[in-house]
């Protein structure tokens, strides 16, 4: 009898503990969004998650004794927590986009040194190199579909000489992986959909607005409206 009573008591303690634990799930974003102002909640969530991301980067940097906080990671953190559903915020686009930015930046940093210019100084030639570097980075991202706007600032930082050290480049790429993994974990706990690697759907082609109408580059030529045909002609794009 006492053994049975003991088992019942243990079961009640177990069930009570599970009930208390289940209350923590009420703090998840998807549940709170049904109980309060979702717009206000999204701003609170954005503030809290960005704060956590930067703090954890700083703690990891102190633990590793290596700098992991870089300016171009700021907009990356913002994008991943403000627009987690955007393909541009996915870990694949984030990590590979920044990798493209690093490769392009290092290439043009070498070009700057090769022509005898001092990186970080303001001159016509250096500004021209910076412009070509950012344009190259953006073009490669556009052609590969690995669109991540903060990667363009990575290119600028490297060409300017702020990340010239190989250790800083490796640390930066490691930090981008760390931030993406952290974003996935936080969104997972909050009940917010966020891909573990690639986005669910690729980024659609850009939509250009001209004076003659809107041009959707993702459409086939045979489905274009008259306004889009006029826009394509105005922007000197071929009509097949």
Which geometry do the CA atoms define? flat
How many strands in all?
2
Count of the separate structural domains:
3
What's the total helix number? 9
Structural class: mainly alpha
In this structure, how is the largest beta sheet organized? 2 strands, antiparallel
For the CA atoms, what is the radius of gyration? 25 Å
SSE sequence, one letter per element: HHHHHHHHEEH
Looking across the biggest beta sheet, what order are the strands in? 1-2
Q: Name the helicity range.
A: 55-70%
Mean pLDDT: 82
Distance between the termini: 87 Å
Ranges with pLDDT <50 over ≥5 residues? none
Strand content: under 5%
Task: Describe what you observe in this structure.
The protein has 240 residues and is mainly α. The chain has three domains: 2-35; 40-190, no CATH class; 207-240, no CATH class. The chain has helices at 2-24, 29-32, 38-64, 73-82, 91-114, 124-144, 150-159, 166-190, 226-234, and strands spanning 207-210, 213-216. The chain has a two-stranded antiparallel sheet. The protein is flat and about 80 Å long. The termini are far apart.
